[in-house]
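Translate structure to sequence.
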């Protein structure tokens, strides 16, 4: 596996695990981490033998958002430099959101500011019950702009307004109630067990169907209601004729486990 400065990556049994690894800086984002996460999602995450990508934080927390040193540096950037810097951040979140593999976020400790963007861009989120969340940017005279599209897509405009404007800190149970988190787990050790169980379940499913499902949901949001049924019918019809779907249906009828790997590994 490639060596990185701010993250750790491991690969095992079809799962790529990414650990944010700046514990002295509370795993906060800086330009190097943004570049490295982008690189991972442009390369390692797209490898044919990878089916699930797990994002977690090292040590005792997930991520505290933007590095304060980086924020201080941006005060001296020109307008154009600030635009380019923000575009790199937005691009990173888009790469995660649009990844054709299933992205799982495993959250504990704190998820502040941009960390909520990581959570929002992930497909399935499990959080330890003591985790604290906040979209705190307005306290600094900023807004959650680059993560905004992903947060709004995940929790809707109403809660986005409330949390963008109040910067209020909230717990994992509230995060689940507004749709930011899918499961709340009691204890970090149980969080890891649940992650392993979840990955095992994801690995039993068709990678092609998962990719098509993500694209389908994204496409539906862009279509007028009158075109959605046609999109659904076309998507299903196209999928039914693929070798991978044929394998899944045959395995079900023959009461055996489907062999998805033969389509991805030599």
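Result:
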């Amino acid at each position: 596996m490639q060596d990185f400065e701010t993250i750790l990556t491991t690969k095992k049994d079809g799962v790529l695990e990414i650990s944010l690894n700046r514990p002295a800086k509370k795993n906060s984002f800086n330009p190097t981490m943004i570049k490295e996460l982008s690189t991972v999602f442009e390369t390692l995450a797209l490898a044919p033998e990878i089916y699930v990508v797990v994002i977690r934080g090292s040590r005792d927390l997930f991520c505290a958002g933007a590095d304060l040193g980086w924020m201080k540096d941006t005060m001296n950037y020109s307008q154009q430099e600030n635009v380019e810097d923000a575009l790199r951040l937005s691009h990173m979140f888009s790469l995660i959101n649009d990844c054709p593999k299933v992205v799982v976020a495993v959250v504990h400790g704190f998820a502040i500011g941009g960390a909520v963007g990581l959570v929002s861009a992930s497909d399935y989120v499990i959080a330890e019950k003591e985790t604290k969340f906040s979209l705190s940017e307005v306290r600094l005279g900023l807004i959650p702009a680059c993560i905004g599209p992903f947060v709004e897509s995940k929790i809707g405009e109403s809660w986005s307004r409330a949390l963008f404007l109040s910067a209020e800190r909230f717990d994992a149970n509230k995060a689940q109630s507004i749709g930011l988190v899918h499961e709340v787990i009691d204890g970090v050790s149980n969080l890891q067990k649940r992650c392993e169980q979840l990955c095992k379940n994801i690995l039993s499913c068709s990678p092609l169907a998962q990719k098509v499902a993500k694209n389908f949901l994204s496409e539906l949001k862009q279509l007028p209601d009158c075109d959605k049924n046609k999109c659904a019918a076309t998507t299903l019809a196209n999928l039914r004729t693929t070798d991978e779907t044929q394998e899944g249906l045959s395995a079900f009828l023959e009461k055996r486990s489907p062999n998805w790997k033969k389509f991805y590994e030599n």
